[in-house]
Amino acid sequence: MPLLARCAGLAGIAAVAACSGSDVPKTDQADAAPAPPPPTATVPNVVNVTAREYAFEVPQQIPAGVTTFRFMAKGKEPHHGIMVRLDDGKTFQDLAEALKKEGPPPTWAHMDGGMMIGDPDAGSMVTMSLTPGKYALICFIPAADGMPHMAKGMVAPIEVTPATGPPAPEPEADVVVRLADFDFQISKPLTPGEHVIRVETTPGQPHEVVLVQLGEGVTPQQVVATEMGQIKGPRPSYTYVGGVAPMEAGRHAYMHVNLKPGNYALICFLPDAKDGKPHLVHGMLKQITVG
């Protein structure tokens, strides 16, 4: 539509230029109504999402555009919410049938990012841009019995409808984290306080970033072993801070965090497309210090 808009503007200019001075009616400028101001950009739409065992509380319709998800995980188990976008012509029922089969997800279902578990009280926040179409919000995290939460009913259909107002701008990020095969590339060291972190996926496989604050003496390896059920006994001290759910190459989203001084871990649990091992095994497990 920008081309049509420019053409319409040029047509208007030509019409005015075609009028001679005598053809233009005289108007008292003091009585002329001022031109209305152009529409201003709005703030991102805010959507509240609550995850429990084993369901999402989320609106069934969301307007397209820049959207901030406020994610609260209220269950006893960790949860995430992946926004899976379906190609035109595919339905939520098509996806449900496809996910019953073994193997990778269908090529017409695209991981566009989403929400990660955060602080138990404050939750987590992720901002992303949504295009109109059909989506499914899914939690793939396995339960204690090994069955994915999705198989227990943690799937919610969402329709993203065309936006009606002016588009909202994307947030201004102060740090960029690039998810590569297989590394977290951070544009500059993180400092205590509030940050808007732009998370980008480079060409290659889909990736996610899980941000965890480590307790005194706790290592990223201990976090991974605990989450994979390999540690018996007391749970090491660590806290989920947030992150961005899996995104295909070329996509980006923003995570909003308020960091305290200390050690943190960046983790990608997503399985490798070639050997099926988690990306953390291939190098996507990094400890950083915020201080």
Average pLDDT, rounded to a whole number, is 87
End-to-end span in angstroms?
Answer: 48 Å
Uncertain stretches? 1-31
Number of strands: 17
Give me the number of helical elements: 3
What's the helix and strand layout?
Layout: H1 2-18, E1 45-52, E2 55-57, E3 61-63, E4 65-73, E5 81-86, H2 92-99, E6 109-115, E7 124-130, E8 133-138, E9 155-161, E10 175-180, E11 183-186, E12 193-201, E13 207-214, H3 220-227, E14 238-247, E15 252-259, E16 262-267, E17 285-290
Parallel strand pairs: 1-4, 3-9, 10-12
Antiparallel strand pairs: 1-2, 4-7, 5-6, 5-8, 6-14, 7-15, 8-9, 10-11, 12-15, 13-14, 13-16, 16-17
Provide an overview of this structure.
- It is a single chain.
- This protein is mainly β and 291 residues long.
- 11% of the residues lie in helices and 39% in strands.
- The chain has helices spanning 2-18, 92-99, 220-227; strands at 45-52, 55-57, 61-63, 65-73, 81-86, 109-115, 124-130, 133-138, 155-161, 175-180, 183-186, 193-201, 207-214, 238-247, 252-259, 262-267, 285-290.
- Strands 3-9-8-5-6-14-13-16-17 form a nine-stranded mixed β-sheet, with helices on one face. Strands 2-1-4-7-15-12-10-11 form an eight-stranded mixed β-sheet, with no helix packed on it.
- It is globular.
Could you write a compact summary of the structure shown?
The protein has 291 residues and is mostly beta strands. The protein is built from 3 helices and 17 strands. It has a 9-stranded mixed β-sheet with strand order 3-9-8-5-6-14-13-16-17, covered by helices on one side.
